[in-house]
From TrEMBL:
Taxonomic classification: Eukaryota, Metazoa, Chordata, Craniata, Vertebrata
Domain called Phosphoacetylglucosamine mutase AMG1: residue spans: 208-283, 297-434
Xref: InterPro entries: A-D-PHexomutase_a/b/a-I, A-D-PHexomutase_a/b/a-I/II/III, A-D-PHexomutase_C, A-D-PHexomutase_C_sf, A-D-PHexomutase_CS, AMG1_II, AMG1_III, PAGM
Catalysed transformations (reactions): N-acetyl-alpha-D-glucosamine 1-phosphate = N-acetyl-D-glucosamine 6-phosphate
Annotated source species: Neotoma lepida (Desert woodrat)
Protein name (Swiss-Prot/TrEMBL): Phosphoacetylglucosamine mutase
Keyword Glycosyltransferase: no
Length: 542
């Protein structure tokens, strides 16, 4: 390894002096203008990680639901998972190093992680549709090649597709073929197999409207459409031909504003969904006959999926342990429904997919979803093998259940939450159960809730515990929140520093929208007072 060459090349991707960025919840993310050096350096780091793990590593250039002028990058570990925490630290160190310190920092990482410089390295790269993404992904490639790594550039991909590619390449194609055709074929075959079993679908002409956030999801759905065209008609909106990425549309907009995206023609009771900018989140919704908007978020998606899986397991007569993983943002009604009605164990983890994914791996079947619509279902390898064997051996109703489960295993992206794969699973379940979107929505009634942001001088003054549901610092904050919550019925509130923005997030729910709004506002005020609020004091919006 030629560190001198690295330094020379690095000078072409010079870091603005003093700029320090952190590898956050989902990698680096900021205005695209500040990211060139980060990309080059993440190319370097991916090579080191690849050498250390002797596996293919992924680098995805995207800023997901952020505005079009932002960008970001994250590394994907060998099994399609998020980067290991110790390497997140290396990423932050490397990204913050001044030019002259680069060789020292690189050497330190290699020593600490016992990286064999002679080992070969292979990196796969993907990018979203942002105007800045192509050039930035070239900088990643520059970093990879200067350290002697080999690479394959997939070009435009959704984030979950790159996770899929990485997983395929490291599992000797057992999981699937590491090509776009391989991805489309695997998912569409499973979808067609699964929906074949739908004998009495109430809704003969299955169709769904998809808001693609003007992002990569549109391109990839178009590419895939003809594979499953007979079972489902997909109508695309915000497909990137006109509007700006994530602007007034997309899953994040719909979830946080609780209203339909612009650019979508919604007729009453039509089933609609939104992807986010890199197609790893999905939320559903519809407008009823009175024009009221109904959001079906990640919690209701998890409920639909886990109850269907439970039914199939019951039919099959297999008692596998199934768990649902949520975060503090899960609506209280969903948790209550899952635990009390469905009798499924529910676990709460910190926000961020890696935490949910990790917890889900502890179960035979782990269904994880964030309320914002990011999630999937994970099946342990032993369960997959067993179910696929039963699908071949059994006949009658049991055989049918086993075959459906086997198709569901193939249909879920086991490497990451995937809007396309989740949509196909949901569409298949609705068809199989003959459920309309209204019936699905009516499983339980969401508690009214409100999310707010508070600006503080340093959000790190807030530390949390109990999966972010309790604040341990600053002193007095949790007690103040507890006192406020007591004033309302069915109420709950928590605060946490954002992992992606320089703000503190406030969440409140209660028995009425008015109470939820009031509680969120009151909690914002105590955060402002006790955690060093800056700028204008929070104002009531009700
Ligand atoms: C990132 C996370 C998402 C999380 C969100 C929270 C991944 C792939 N994405 O988008 O899971 O919900 O951050 O953002 O991990 P916040 O910390 O700003 O609330
Ligand atoms: Mg995303």
């Amino acid at each position: 390894m030629d560190l001198e060459a690295v330094c020379k090349r690095s000078a072409c991707h010079a870091k603005p002096q003093g700029l320090v960025l952190q590898y956050g919840t989902a990698g680096f993310r900021t205005n695209a203008q500040h990211l060139d050096h980060i990309m080059f350096r993440m190319g370097l780091l991916a090579v080191l990680r690849s050498k250390q793990t002797r596996s293919t590593i992924g680098v995805m250039v995207t800023a997901s639901h952020n505005p079009e002028e932002d960008n970001g990058v994250k590394l994907i570990d060998p099994l399609g998972e998020m980067l290991a925490p110790s390497w997140e630290e290396h990423a932050t160190c490397l990204a913050s190093a001044e030019e002259q310190d680069m060789p020292r920092v690189l050497t330190a990482i290699m020593e600490k992680e016992a990286v064999d410089p002679q080992q070969a390295a292979f990196v796969v790269i993907g990018r979203d549709t942002r105007p800045s993404s192509e050039k930035l992904s070239q900088s990643v490639i520059d970093g990879v090649t200067v350290l002697g790594g080999q690479f394959h550039d997939y070009g435009l991909l959704t984030t979950p597709q790159l996770h899929y590619m990485v997983y395929c390449r490291n599992s000797g194609d057992r999981y699937g073929k590491a090509t776009i055709e391989g991805y489309c074929q695997k998912l569409s075959k499973a979808f067609v197999e699964l929906t074949k079993q739908a004998s009495c679908s109430g809704d003969e002409n299955r169709s769904v409207k998809v808001d693609c956030a003007n992002g990569i999801g549109a391109l990839k759905l178009k590419e895939m459409e003809h594979y499953f065209s007979q079972g489902l008609s997909v109508q695309l909106f915000n497909d990137g031909t006109e509007g700006r990425l994530n602007h007034l549309c997309g899953a994040d907009f719909v979830k946080s504003h609780q209203k339909p995206p612009q650019g979508m023609e919604m007729k009453s009771n039509e089933r609609c969904c939104s992807f986010d900018g890199d197609a790893d989140r999905i939320v559903y919704y519809y407008c009823d006959a009175n024009g009221h908007f109904h959001l079906i978020d990640g919690d209701k998606i998890a409920t639909l999926i886990s109850s269907f899986l439970k039914e199939l397991l019951l039919e099959l007569g297999e008692s596998l342990n199934i768990g649902v993983i949520q975060t503090a943002y899960a609506n209280g009604s969903s948790t209550r429904y899952l635990e009390e009605v469905m009798k499924v164990p529910v676990h709460c983890t910190k926000t961020g997919v890696k935490h949910l994914h990790h917890k889900a791996q502890e179960f035979d079947i782990g269904v994880y979803f964030e309320a914002n619509g990011h999630g999937t279902a994970l099946f342990s390898e032993a369960v997959e093998v067993k179910i696929k064997r039963l699908a071949q051996e059994l006949e009658d109703e049991k055989g049918k259940a086993a075959k459906m489960l086997a198709s569901i295993i193939d249909l879920f992206n086991q490497a990451a939450g995937d809007a396309i794969s989740d949509m196909l699973v949901i569409e298949a379940i609705l068809a199989l159960k003959g459920l309309t979107v209204q019936q699905w929505d009516a499983i339980y009634v969401d508690l009214p809730n409100r999310q707010l942001k508070v600006k503080v001088a340093d959000r790190r003054v807030i530390n949390t515990t109990d999966a972010e549901r309790q604040a341990v610092t600053p002193p007095g904050l949790q007690e103040a929140i507890n006192d406020l919550v007591k004033k309302y019925k069915l109420a709950r509130a928590f605060v946490r520093p954002s992992g992606t923005e320089d703000i503190v997030r406030v969440y409140a729910e209660a028995d009425s929208q008015e109470s939820a709004d009031r509680l969120a506002y009151e909690v914002s005020l105590v955060v402002f007072q006790l955690a060093g609020g800056i700028g204008e004091r929070p104002q009531p919006s009700f």
